[in-house]
Amino acid sequence: MKPIWIVDDDQSIRFVLEKALLREELPTRSFTNAREVLLALESANDDQGPQILVSDIRMPGGSGLDLLSKVKEKHPGLPVIIMTAFSDLDSAVSAFQGGAFEYLPKPFDVPKAIELIRRAVEESQREEVAEERMAATPEMLGQAPAMQDVFRAIGRLSQSNVTVMITGESGTGKELVARALHKHSPRATGPFVAINTAAIPKDLLESELFGHERGAFTGAQTMRRGRFEQADGGTLFLDEIGDMPFDLQTRLLRVLSDGHFYRVGGHSAVKANVRVIAATHQDLEVRVKEGVFREDLFHRLNVIRLRLPALRERREDIPMLARHFLQQSAKQLGVEPKRISDAAVAKLTSFGFPGNVRQLENICHWLTVMAPAQLVEPEDLPPEVADAPSDSPVRPTAAPEQSRAVDAAVRPVSTAAPMLPAGGGGGWESALDAEAMELLVAGRQDVWEQLTRRFESRLILTALSNTRGRRIEAAQKLGIGRNTITRKIQELGLE
Questions:
Q1: Coil, helix or strand for 252?
Q2: Backbone phi, then psi, for 280, in 5-degree steps?
Q3: Any idea which of 261-265, 277-281, 332-336 has the lowest mean pLDDT?
Q4: Which residues of 31-65 are buried (b: 16+ CB within 10 A; e: fewer)?
Q5: Band of pLDDT at residue 420, cut at 50, 70 and 90
Q6: How high is the pLDDT of residue 139?
Q7: Cα–Cα distance between 238 and 253 in angstroms, integer?
Q8: E strand or H helix at 28, and its extent?
């Protein structure tokens, strides 16, 4: 295992961490300033580099924040833990924007420090495995049995030109499968042309598919080749075929029968050597019974049917897909990829995903832009996920979602509001009832904000007292995220 690098000008800090990590059988390497670390990183190969970097903020010859910035430029995946005194907590919080994994307040509790470092090591090892998988990522991802069936079907069809019908809910990746079928077919060197028949107005769809001659209609100033001609020698993907107008279905059936068609306004038959792959999220058998889809066309298209599972049917793929999309999104935006905690993964896995893989991809784009820290926690997830009830046997942690609901509802009014009275014959609930009634009778319009702020303040101060000021531990005991407790302390004036 690669060593934990410790950077601190205080010899006692280095000594304590070295001995504690040695007892945990974790190798270490120590440095006294940032310049030594940067020189060592330049000369170290992949096996000699650090597994984790633990750095102080205030050091002679360069701060830990400057070191963090330079390390992240060349080693974006390296977890960095920032050690800081309480007076530097604002700097430590801002360090999250620079990619810090976590901060360790001084003076620290050694077991807690080791626990934090071990968690960073586990995260680092998990990310290394994920990166190895990403390096060899095929065009499609999936370990679930249902997706393995799809992969096997693509393999069996790889040397065939047979027509394929892909079915599945919106967002399951039907076009991705169509592209894979094309890529692994004898037509791979030919064009792949895709058209969504539901997205084009009926009056234009015929021209889009079959082209038109000059003067065929107003605005047709030149001859135009349609999608069938453009796909000659390759594959034409007809998405949402169930929405194709009935009269155009007749023309499509003729093309599938003999490969000939006429451009709009044309008199000469055009022949195109095209493999057709169709897709729909609708039940075509029902559409046939309703009389809106031709039965003969259905049978012509339905030579091989390939059904894509909904994401809720392949939940075991969600962690891998989420990490893949976070990597992909970060690459597109030119930023460091976000990591996702096990708790956040559990919450995602319990979500129903009505929009399937496309929705998960959009969520990962949102997290890349909006998540406040490099490590995504449950409370960082978008509201439609964080506030959604569990849709699977996975049991998500409830407290972060509850805190998110409170965060969204409360805004600061006064930082000097008195605390709720602790006495009362009926306990604190009776005291709360009496206080609320008094404010309501007085005609106050901010009762919710006033009482919620005071309730939150009492909770946080009590938790900090219990943990002797250790914010991360207090957040864990309250069941909220570290970013939430830091923000609340600032909003409520508890600094």
A1: helix
A2: -160, 150
A3: 332-336
A4: bbbbeebbeebeeeeeeebbbbbbbbbbbeebbbb
A5: very low
A6: 53
A7: 13
A8: strand 28-31
Q: pTM for the full model?
A: 0.54
The Cα–Cα gap between 162 and 157 comes to 8
Assess contact for 106 and 43: CB atoms under 8 A: no
pLDDT tens digit string along 72-122?
A: 877 877 888 888 775 555 665 666 666 777 778 788 888 888 888 888 887
Tens-place pLDDT, residues 444-489 = 777 888 888 888 888 888 888 888 888 888 888 888 887 788 888 8
Element at 5 (helix H, strand E):
strand 4-7
User: Both tokens of residue 358?
Assistant: 């496309």
Number of CB atoms found within 10 A of residue 83's CB: 24
Which helix (DSSP H) or strand (DSSP E) does residue 486 occupy? helix 482-491
Secondary structure string (H, E, C) spanning 328-372: HHHHHHCCCCCEECHHHHHHHHCCCCCCHHHHHHHHHHHHHHHCC
Closest CA to 340 of 328, 348, 350: 348
* Residue 352 near residue 312, CB atoms below 8 Å: yes
Residue ranges of domains in the chain, CATH in brackets:
4-135 (3.40.50.2300), 163-302 (3.40.50.300), 313-397 (1.10.8.60), 428-491 (1.10.10)
Nearest to 256 by CA among 210, 291, 193, 305: 210
> Using CA atoms, how far apart are residues 437 and 337, in angstroms rounded to an integer?
50
DSSP-derived 3-state class of residue 389: coil
Q: Give the whole-angstrom CA distance, residue 414 versus residue 391.
A: 40
* Model confidence pLDDT, tens digit, residues 365-418: 999 988 888 889 999 999 888 877 766 443 333 333 333 322 322 223 333 333
Q: Would you call the peptide bond into 107 cis, given omega within 30 degrees of 0 as the criterion?
A: yes
86: helix, strand or coil: helix
Provide the token pair at 82: 């920032």
